[in-house]
Input
Amino acid sequence: MFTDTHCHLYKEYYEDIDKIITNAKECHVNRMLNNGCNITSNQEVLDLAKKYNNIYAALGIHPESVDTYKEEDLLFISDHLNEGKVIGIGEIGLDYHYTKANKEQQIKLFESQLRIAEDYNLPVIIHSRDATIDTINTLKKFHVKGVIHSFSGSKETALIYIKMGFLLGINGVITFKNSKLKETIKDIPLEHIILETDSPYLTPEPYRGKRNEPARILDIAKFISDLKGISLEDLATITNNNIKRIFDI
Ligand code: NI
Output
């Protein structure tokens, strides 16, 4: 049994969530952690977690929403943390890929949500793109644990996050032919790794370019079990134990 620790199951991407869950089950993916990005998706994430017993919820405002979110969207998060199966704050973080011009605002939004996580003792799911140093420095100001989602950095960066108590979320990027991630992950003990799809994005090879879905965890797992020379069963056991160290799942 595998867990997809990071997906975005929203109506705008998937017409038929029942089918997506059936596909996942057929591929031994029995649990999903659905991540919100803004006020609309946070509400959807809550609704799905109530409807399906194997979908868990994380609430958060993504850095790409930094220019449009309102203060009340943060209140919505803290107001709904006690509802069933909300197990983390995410997807939150810093993204300087398109612009650094709003980095002060991004850090402010990030810190507001790290404070919520600290106050409620919940793990965080971190998005960090072209912002490694600021992400590390911001995280260090808080007592939080969690996951570096879609980790694709160097071995040196991986070891810093691991030392800070974070897990590395590994997805289809590791299967991409031009990715150096497989070299990095070869050297990282499996005790620090969990699996994710980031559906509908980052579809693994050989399906790259198509819409992703949680069932594709199995393709990512096969790639990593080959890379690490262990069985799929052992990989499932280790990664599920890792999840339990961080998440109340
Ligand atoms: Ni994501």
The chain has nine helices and eight strands.
